[in-house]
Specification:
Layout: E1 3-5, H1 9-14, E2 23-27, E3 33-37, E4 42-48, E5 58-65, H2 70-85, H3 90-97, H4 107-117, H5 123-134, H6 147-158, H7 162-179, E6 184-185, E7 188-189, H8 196-203, H9 222-235, H10 238-253, H11 257-261, E8 268-269, E9 274-277, E10 288-291, H12 294-305, H13 328-338, H14 346-357, H15 362-368, H16 376-381, H17 392-433
Parallel strand pairs: 1-2
Antiparallel strand pairs: 2-3, 3-4, 4-5, 6-7, 8-9, 9-10
Helix pairs in contact: 4-7, 6-7, 6-8, 9-10, 9-13, 9-17, 10-12, 10-14
Length: 434
């Protein structure tokens, strides 16, 4: 909610920082001049529509308090407001005043700059998503993109892919926030404020309203899943076979699919029975160690016998020195034989669900799968490299439970086979008596 005050130095100093969402305070004199108070800073902004433009009001960031004084902020707000009333873009006028030419800032330029400074490990996937949904905007000047256009794009994608629409908008916002301060001309910032917060307000309660699809392997089907995946693995082509093996290792170790796929033999110690996942391959940028349960240990020993010159545990059969690529057909075949929705990340959720079922403490479970747990200053002093085998008991406990479910399923298959055989004998005996 906006509050109207007389924006003065004393008033701005007296405003406490927000404990939640940012609060806007409108100036009583200059229309659109506001101070935005967040958790750690106070920012002067001007919200004004440029006369003649068929778009929503623009938000111009004037500066942070006290880096810029209230007097200078009011003066800039008045100048910008005058330009807007005359139908002139204040940023263009400022560049012309300093003897500079107006320069367009395209979405493609922002993406290139974003991936230069971002530590994203999914650059190729994120870039392909932008290309698929926003290819027609790559050469468009970002200052001409309106809130209405973004809302329309979101609604268009959300008709068939609601999760993708939310993810794209979130990524677009991240790109804007990370690059807006970097794209400058003669030290002048070229981009206005991020339009996505206004888009979220327009979308309303539909924003991120739909729950995530979080498939897990049900307890009573764990044995069946393992049995049928091993069957599929035995008869699959080499590329698919590697993907099945990734799933088999993941359910016993709780790995993320990418962590498992990128695993190299240099990080596997078969003598001690541990796997090191380096920070460069993790989502949290934290190194961690996984002590192997007996089944996972045996699986890796078998894979090591087939090892060639490729450094990856799950090597590509086509590309030298690269891991195998993800095969969607693997998940589809598992869905076909199991009969419920499945995705590779379901193995990680199942691993954690089994741990919870076995009453393993939540903090221990978080450490087993490298979920973020800072633990304050003390947590920063605790190194997983001190004893990589420390949690082997918990991994073995989960592994034993999975194999127990597997053995029960195989035993039931045998009993069903015997019952069917017995009924056939009985029927043939009845026929003979007739």
């Amino acid at each position: 909610m906006n509050k109207t005050i007389q924006i003065t130095k004393a008033a701005v100093v007296s405003i406490p920082f927000s404990k939640g969402h940012p609060i806007l305070f409108k100036d009583a004199a200059i229309r659109g001049f506001k101070v935005k108070v967040g958790k750690t800073r106070k920012t002067f902004i001007l919200e004004k529509r440029i006369h003649g433009e068929k778009r929503s009001a623009r938000i111009f960031v004037l500066g942070l308090f006290p880096t810029i004084s209230v007097r200078d902020a009011r003066r800039m707000a008045q100048e910008y407001s005058t330009c807007c009333e005359r139908g002139i873009d204040p940023l263009e006028a400022k560049l012309e005043k300093n003897g500079m030419e107006y320069r367009e800032v395209t979405l493609l330029e922002m993406l290139v700059k974003y991936f230069e400074v971002s530590d994203s490990k999914n650059e190729r996937r994120e870039m392909s998503r932008f290309k698929f949904h926003m290819n027609h905007w790559f050469d468009k000047d970002m200052r001409t993109i309106t809130v209405e256009e973004l809302v329309e794009l979101h609604r268009k994608i959300a008709k068939n892919q609601p999760a993708s629409a939310d993810r794209l908008l979130k990524m677009f916002s991240a790109v804007w926030n990370r690059t807006a301060f970097l794209i400058r001309f003669n030290n002048e910032r070229l981009l206005p404020a991020n339009p996505v917060p206004e888009v979220k307000k327009t979308i309303g309660p539909n924003w991120k309203a739909k729950p995530k699809n979080t498939p897990v392997i049900p307890k009573h089907q764990i044995g069946e899943w393992l049995y049928k995946v091993r069957q599929l693995c035995g008869s699959a082509p080499l590329g698919q076979k590697r993907n099945y093996e990734i799933l088999l290792l993941s359910i016993f170790c709780g790995f993320r699919n990418t962590e498992c796929r990128m695993l190299q033999w240099g990080n596997v110690d078969l003598k001690v029975g541990t796997i090191r996942i380096g920070r460069e391959d993790t989502k949290t940028n934290h190194e961690y160690f996984t002590p192997l349960s007996s089944y996972a240990w045996d699986l890796l020993k078998e894979l090591h016998k087939e090892r060639g010159v490729n450094p990856y545990v799950f090597p590509s059969p086509l590309i030298p020195n690269r891991p195998v690529v993800n095969k969607d057909v693997v998940s589809l075949k598992i869905v076909e034989v199991i009969g419920f929705h499945f995705s590779p990340h379901a193995t990680r959720r199942t691993f954690l669900s089994i741990g919870n079922h076995l009453c393993i403490p939540l903090i221990t479970l978080k450490r087993l799968v490298n979920h973020r747990y800072e633990g304050g200053v003390t947590g920063g002093y605790i190194s997983p490299a001190f004893d990589p085998t420390a949690n082997r008991k918990e991994f073995q406990k989960i592994g034993d439970f999975i194999m127990k479910m597997y053995d029960e399923y195989v035993q039931n298959l045998g009993e069903v086979g015997l019952r069917q055989k017995g009924s056939e004998i009985q029927e043939s005996g009845d026929d003979a008596s007739i």
